[in-house]
UniProtKB/TrEMBL annotation, chain A:
Lineage: Eukaryota, Viridiplantae, Streptophyta, Embryophyta, Tracheophyta
UniProt keyword annotations, A-Z: Membrane, Mitochondrion, Mitochondrion outer membrane
CC annotations in GO: SAM complex
InterPro entries tied to this protein: Metaxin1/3, Metaxin_GST, Mito_Protein_Transport_Metaxin, Thioredoxin-like_fold
Coiled-coil regions listed in the entry: none
Cited Pfam families: GST_C_6 (PF17171), GST_N_4 (PF17172)
Species this protein is from: Rubroshorea leprosula
One Gene Ontology biological process: protein targeting to mitochondrion
Location(s) in or outside the cell: Mitochondrion outer membrane
Bilayer-crossing regions: none
Domain Thioredoxin-like fold: 23-116
Family membership noted in the UniProt record: Belongs to the metaxin family.
Phosphoprotein is among the record's keywords: no
Protein known as: Metaxin
Automatic annotation (TrEMBL), chain B:
Residue ranges occupied by any Bacterial surface antigen (D15) domain in the UniProt entry: 187-520
Record protein name field: Bacterial surface antigen (D15) domain-containing protein
Gene3D superfamilies in the cross-refs: membrane protein fhac, membrane protein fhac: a member of the omp85/tpsb transporter family
Signal sequence, start to end: none
């Protein structure tokens, strides 16, 4: 496998001054940026309901969002980009990650699809689709989000309060954790920063000013400073192709091993290993049945062809004056 | 409806039934002939007879009259005008539906014309499929108007409006053979409307559920209007790693023997549940709105579509996508040509069939040549149908499997440890050309000849190329010709009432590394198109 092969990230389209406006794609983008690896960004704007996007291509290999805990975990697992090598066993890091992946992710999902008007989601997901398709997919997604968050007519008010309360708690905890540092843990970037920065940037730039979630985030100045600083340093520092070579120190935050080891199966049904014998048997059985069917059809059609022609002649219109 | 008063002539007035196949014993001559002619032809002037003539005498008399009429008709035109067209028997069907089909009767000026037009009108009314029987009778016109006749059309509306059928079909755009079962409800509102629901299953892993309505006359339009809503699902996972699902509406706007214009509006979704697709396919997954107009011009002067031995045919299909105020719908231009010529050779019913077909697809709009064309609209060569029967564009080649010819791309690699290279996706092409030559002849066995079973020797060639995404810059005719694939073969053709079956031995002359083609025995099924 050639190490010089480029990474390609396929994400949803940019908007709101964000390189990709989708809150699920943005953390992956930021993670690649934090690793300072060169990659190409491409967009898919006609498949808003796909859970495969974002995905990262490397040569003939692909890491899909809906496989193996997501793209970031896959990249870490296969030692392509691992910013978390020193944090995996740190309990605080793990609980902070769990908080971001659950409470803050739910809050963003609620705010985007149920808390604000449809214009934000429309700009991100449906602006390149014709109106009837976009509208139907939007309504379908709103329904799916309600199912996922367990929101019904009866508990809507209570669920909303619960979601915002948990988001507020998460912001306070992370704000305390962050303090005045540049990054959340040991002053160096990790996937935690990628996820939290993605959340923060989306909340600050994409959500409308009337958004309750945005209002709660703005109460923490250090988080706002953190978001702006990292955005300037990593996202606006230039295109990915001009990013310098990866670090080579032993405790490097961006390690890339020489060999790739993509041995997992794709999501969904893996190909069942069939023995040669089974395949041959099934093929023969198929041919046998087909031959039987053809023989019956031939018999009915060819042998019965004479009488069918007579009937056809009878149907012809004609005059007879005899 | 009562018959008009007859002249003071005891000759019985009986209408002429122009459409019954059975022997008509009571056919009679017409009352309203020229007086001159009547005077000239004694056979039509009867002296007064006693009322008590025997049936035998009457029958003899009528036979003489009819013989005379036939002689007159054979020797020249017998002039006659239509005074009135009377429609009977339509309790449910609106008058104007039937009247629109019988307009031509009013212009007939001779008996010969009238009989010919009556036959055509009868067929048109039968073709509406809402009548169990149609009878057209000619009756004498008003006595004060000589040379006139009243045409009486008696229809019997279908007693059982619900019918079902199962059939096997192939269409120009279908890749292969489909089996279809449908239910029809006829004349629900009396406008000759036919409502149908159908289920289709194709050998190319496609399934379709659709419902439609056909109106013979809609607000003064000259041709029937058809509308069909459908949900179509096609599984191309095995060949190109994607599944296609379309929910759409198809409107047949104009249809005649040579021209056909349809509009199609569909929401199409391409997915890859296997998550193994190649890069090109991955980039095209998603939703599209298809709003296209398709015009087909067809001339088929061949003597048969199952075994053409004489004549020619030409089909041109133009499809423009993007007929929508929304610029986000799929925009493309697709053109196909197909020219066939059959030359009879004069021995053993032998004929040489030559054919050439070509097609091109390009997106349109800003920067169209740098954008990719839509995968489902591209040209794919290969399949299990006979190129001789599939008229409409480059679709199949003998010896090449479904989508087996053309550009390919490796699929997603999963396992590094696995030494086998990943399978490949077949991507089709923007430009496709194919040509065929087929010599068919009877075998020297009378039993086979009776059944229509004959042999054929064939050769064909074809190629596809990519033009979009700026690949047209690398395109050259020389390279295109050098990479043409071809095959030859010999086989037995068994035509049946449902389909044409071919048992062939194909030998692949040339194929590319990744083409799916094999030399050997092939069985193909085609329904004539």
């Amino acid at each position: 496998m050639e190490q010089s092969q480029e990474l390609t990230l396929v994400a949803r389209k940019p908007y709101f001054d964000l390189p990709t406006a989708c809150p699920i794609c943005l953390p992956v983008y930021i993670y690649l940026k934090l690793s300072r690896l060169p990659f190409t960004l491409e967009f898919n704007s006609i498949y808003p309901d796909s859970d495969q996007i974002p995905y990262v291509e490397y040569g003939a290999y692909v890491a899909y969002n809906n496989e193996n805990d997501g793209v970031i975990e896959r990249l870490k697992e296969k030692s392509v980009i691992d910013l978390d090598s020193d944090f995996q066993a740190v309990p605080e890091w793990i609980s902070a990650k769990a908080m971001i992946d659950s409470w803050l992710a739910d809050a963003i999902m609620y705010e985007l699809w149920l808390g604000s008007d449809a214009s934000v989601a429309d700009k991100i997901y449906y602006s390149d689709l014709p109106w009837p398709i976009g509208k139907i997919l939007y309504l379908k997604q709103v329904y799916n989000v309600k199912q996922r968050l367990g929101i019904t007519k009866d508990n809507a008010q209570w669920r909303e309060e619960q979601i915002y309360k948990k988001a507020k708690m998460a912001y306070e905890a992370l704000s305390t954790r962050l303090g005045d540092q540049n990054f959340l843990f040991e002053n160096r970037p990790s996937s935690l920063d990628a996820c939290f920065l993605g959340h923060a940037l989306f909340t600050l730039q994409a959500l409308p000013e009337t958004s309750m979630l945005r209002g709660k985030l703005l109460q923490h100045d250090n988080i706002v400073r953190y978001a702006e600083k990292l955005k300037m340093e990593f996202l606006e520092a230039g295109s990915s192709s001009s990013v310098p070579q990866p670090h080579s120190s032993p405790s490097s935050s961006a390690q890339r091993r020489g060999t790739w080891n993509w041995s997992s199966k794709p999501k969904g049904k893996p190909k069942r290993e069939k023995t040669e014998e089974e395949k041959k048997f099934k093929k023969r059985a198929k041919y046998f049945l087909a031959a039987q069917g053809i023989a019956v059809l031939l018999f009915l059609s060819v042998m019965g062809r004479g009488s069918a022609e007579v009937e056809l002649e009878d149907d012809d219109e004609g005059f007879s004056y005899d | 409806m009562s018959y008009p008063e007859s002249k003071p002539d005891p000759k019985p007035q009986q209408p002429v039934n122009a459409t019954d196949l059975d022997e008509e014993d009571d056919l009679d001559d017409l009352d309203d002939l020229d007086e001159e002619e009547i005077e000239d032809d004694d056979a039509f002037i009867e002296p007064e007879r006693p009322k008590s003539r025997t049936a035998e005498e009457r029958a003899r008399e009528e036979k003489v009259k009819m013989a005379s009429l036939v002689r007159r008709m054979q020797s020249g035109a017998v002039s006659l005008r239509v005074h009135d067209v009377i429609i009977k028997g339509n309790n449910k069907t609106k008058d104007y539906i039937i009247e629109a089909e019988v307009e031509a009767l009013k212009n007939a000026s001779t008996i010969q014309d009238l009989l010919r037009v009556s036959s055509a009108v009868n067929m048109r009314l039968q073709a509406l499929e809402v009548f169990d029987s149609v009878a057209i009778r000619l009756d004498s016109g008003p006595p004060e108007l000589p040379d006139t006749t009243n045409v009486i059309i008696e229809v019997v509306e279908t007693a059982n409006p619900l019918s079902g059928e199962i059939g096997a079909y192939t269409k120009a755009e279908a890749r292969s053979y489909t089996v279809e079962g449908s239910l029809k409800y006829k004349n629900l509102f009396g406008y000759g409307d036919i409502w149908d629901g159908s289920l289709k299953y194709g050998c190319d892993h496609s399934a379709e559920v659709s419902a439609g309505v056909s109106l013979p006359r809609f607000k003064g339009l000259v041709t029937p209007l058809t509308a069909r809503a459908y949900l179509l699902s096609q599984d191309w996972l095995k060949f190109s790693s994607y599944k296609e699902r379309s929910l759409g509406l198809s409107l047949g706007l104009f249809s005649s023997s040579h021209h056909d214009l349809t509009y199609n509006l569909a929401w199409r979704n391409l997915t890859d549940p296997s998550q193994l697709s190649s890069k090109t396919i991955r980039r095209q997954l998603g939703h599209n709105l298809l709003s296209s107009l398709k015009y087909t011009f067809k001339i088929d002067r061949r003597n048969s579509s199952l075994r053409p031995t004489r004549g020619y045919s030409f089909v041109s299909t133009t499809q423009i996508g993007g007929f929508s105020p929304d610029s986000r719908s799929l925009r493309f231009l697709r053109q196909e040509f197909d020219l066939r010529y059959a030359i009879p050779l004069g021995f053993y019913r032998a004929a040489l069939n030559l054919g050439v077909s070509a097609g091109v697809i390009l997106p349109w709009g800003d920067g169209f040549l740098s954008r990719p064309s839509s995968i489902p609209e591209r040209f794919f060569l290969g399949g299990n149908t006979s190129p001789l029967c599939t008229l409409g564009g480059p679709t199949t080649l003998w010896g090449f499997k479904t989508r087996g010819l053309g550009l390919t791309e490796p699929r997603r690699q999963i396992n590094d440890e696995n030494a086998d290279p990943p399978e490949r996706d077949y991507l089709g092409g923007d430009l496709a050309v194919s040509a065929l030559a087929d010599l068919s002849f009877d075998l020297p066995f009378s039993w086979l000849r009776e059944k229509g079973i004959h042999a054929h020797v064939f050769a064909n060639a074809g190629n596809v190329a990519k033009l979009t995404e700026n690949e047209y810059r690398n395109f050259s005719m020389r390279k295109f010709m050098e990479s043409i694939r071809g095959s030859v073969g010999v086989g037995l053709v068994i035509p049946t009432s449902l389909f044409r079956m071919e048992l062939n031995y194909c030998h692949i002359l040339k194929k590319n590394d990744y083409d799916r083609a094999k030399s050997g025995i092939w069985l193909t099924f085609s329904a004539p198109s």
